[in-house]
Amino acid sequence: MSTVERDPFILDRPTGRSLRARDAIACVLVAALLLLVVEGASIRSTGEKMDPGLERSVVLAVGHPAGWLADRLPFAAAADKVTASLSPDDDLTGEGGFNAAPVAAPAAAAGAAAGGGARIAITTDSFDPVELGVKPAKLPQLETLLVTGDSLAQPLDVQLARSLASDGVQTVRAAHLGTGISKTDIVDWGLLSTQQAKDRKPDAVVMFMGANEGFPFPGSGGEAIECCGPEWAVVYATRARRMMDTYRRGGAARVYWLTLPLPRDARLQEIARAVNAAIAVAAQPFRSQVRVLDMTSVFTPGGRYRAAQDVGGRETIVRRPDGIHLNDAGAKIAMGIVLERLRADFESLGA
Amino acid sequence: MVFPTVQFAVFFPIVLALSWALMRRQKVWKPFILTASYVFYAAANPLFCLMIAGVTLANQACAQLIHRSDDARVRKRIVVLAVALDLATLGVFKYYGFFATEINGLLDKAGLGLPLPLAAIALPIGISFIIFQAISYTVDVYRKLLPPAKTIDVALYLSFFPHLVAGPIVRAREFIPQLDSPRDPRRVAVGAGVALILIGLVKKVAIADFLAREIVDPVFGVPQAYAAPDVILASYAYAVQIYCDFSGYTDIAIGLALLMGFVFPQNFDRPYRAASFGEFWRRWHMTLSRFLRDFLYIPLGGNRGGRWKTVRNLMITMVLGGLWHGAAWGFVLWGAIHGAALVVEHQFRGRVKLPRWLGWALVFHIVVLAWIPFRAPDLGLAASYVSRLAEWGPATLWTAPVVIVTFLVVALQLAPARPMDALRVRFERLHPAALGASMASVILLVAATVSSQGVPPFIYFQF
Fold this sequence. Notes:
The structure holds two protein chains of two kinds.
Chain A: H1 21-49, H2 54-71, H3 75-83, H4 110-113, H5 129-132, E1 144-149, H6 156-165, E2 170-175, H7 189-200, E3 204-208, E4 217-218, E5 224-225, H8 230-248, E6 254-258, H9 266-283, E7 290-293, H10 296-299, E8 308-311, E9 314-317, H11 328-345
Parallel strand pairs in A: 1-2, 1-3, 3-6, 6-7
Antiparallel strand pairs in A: 4-5, 8-9
Helix pairs in contact in A: 1-2, 1-3, 7-8, 8-9
Chain B: H1 6-22, H2 26-42, H3 48-68, H4 72-109, H5 127-142, H6 151-159, H7 172-180, H8 190-221, H9 228-259, H10 277-283, H11 286-300, H12 307-325, H13 329-348, H14 356-375, H15 379-388, H16 400-414, H17 418-428, H18 432-448
């Protein structure tokens, strides 16, 4: 870098044609109008996914009429047809979606109805051999590990992948940000879990999800089942149970489902408690293959949020500033717990 | 708020129309644009607006005091105080956690049980850009290059939404004079603005995010799982990704500003065609280079104090330039590599003359290698990444689109600019309705490449 006599950063005034300000507005409005006509439904759906507030209200104020218009015109379907091949998303179609199943009924019957399929009989799968004092049967080889969930699965996914690379384990990292079991607008986890199990056939699945929960479930009479009472937990547990059943592939795979460390925010804590209770109940029929790994007591003992804790004798921050996610240090702690259970379940990883 | 989102697509047309409608009434226009800019910033976290308001008021107070004082020593003390306050703000938000962890580690090793308190501090997006612009304002007033502006003008300068979160780093004396008189509604560079916005969108969404998803993130995340062919391609792909991500943001920012009647400085000029490191830094993040030159390198003495002082000044400037990107040793190493390369170049200037193609090859590949510690999560993983360059094995991520996109972007930088410029000029001459239709078509195509999880944030937002 040398000192320069003349400042070369003279503002480059565009040399091209100048138009009037009204042309600038007309140009942007033409573009906006075309986008409204074609993508009106997407604007509406984006608004519906946003958290309540001014921003959401403004987007919906545009999105509702735009969506209404787009629904009545053929352009959206035509544009989708033309651009479908450009989408990086997997085509989530077929059976297994939560929305395809009957809506929830309250209380005890809900479990069988809300996207949950039939009642599950008590079998030997319902018992964890360790609790019975029996040596658990190890699976021989961990070839493919799927680490999935929402944003909570990061950076745990990459840390597990690094840690297991030397064991020849292929780790599939599939965090779907902004998604949840109680919201199916971005991703229907019923469909996604079915496809993940079918396509990847993972020997083990690590699931860490729950940062975006608390949305109401549709009830059988069209009413909304609001978070976070027992009725809501029933539906959540039913959906989670079906995903666990999908991932365990009839016993061919092991599932490691992490509970939620309590978030800082009191309202989010209420949701996290409901999610954690639902996970515990969901796993009951598959205790021999589904491990519920308790992150709650590790990161928030006594139900109290803390950003830092003792790690290797030194006070270390383990949560991100948002008060929800784990940072790198926190994810390393979670990884240690997951690795311990993986080693106990797979011969190829050693003891 | 991120540019390529539905939220911004709703926000911008409203703000643009109202901005031109109110332009002749500056007493209304300025509060309106200031409010719009704060709304834009508050979308990330409303509390961050307090930080930017505080920085604005503190720098404006110091600038006024500097202007009113005739005593050189007093003026100097105030400017030092202002810069110290700015850097302290940056330090608390950006570097506290890093230095507290490092110092606690050293204290532990020394057996001193006096650890610094730890806190999980949220990093306001774009804080480094905001702080550098604040410093630019106060120092320019101190150097008498600019009289103190009205408080609302300073607030607008620091928060104007097109450049708020990732630059370009506009100097106060470039921006504030543009506020003095209303923009001329008969002379708006509509075509140039639209062209830049579309080029930026394609660079960010269709190229940078595509390469990140397909090769860069997997390989840099777990380099141990990949052999040399994938690691080599990922290195080139990251060089292309970071260029398209950052210059894409800048293109959009400059294009939006043009539609609103403002002119921003250029930030990139085909950097990968550089045949020397001096040239690279005149083409890459040009407004940061300029800032570092004017506010660090020259005040340190530049190249006026002899060979060793020049070496020292170059290294200090580049290492601090690296650290500006974030609190991590990888950024420091990246800055040190560039500093060392500039030093070597400076020492051999006039003594060794390389053919241009050889100079280009050397510079390009050292730049690509230097991106490895910049991108790797830590130095250990950077070392692991480099070690994989010698581990031969199968190419698992070499797909035709990844290879073509990566090498096409580099090739376009090496190609003569004239044909592309001619194409752009023809585009700029289109009728406004045709420009609008082109904009909608490109947005539709680009949006189709976005995953259901939305557009990832621009890389430079974290800086």
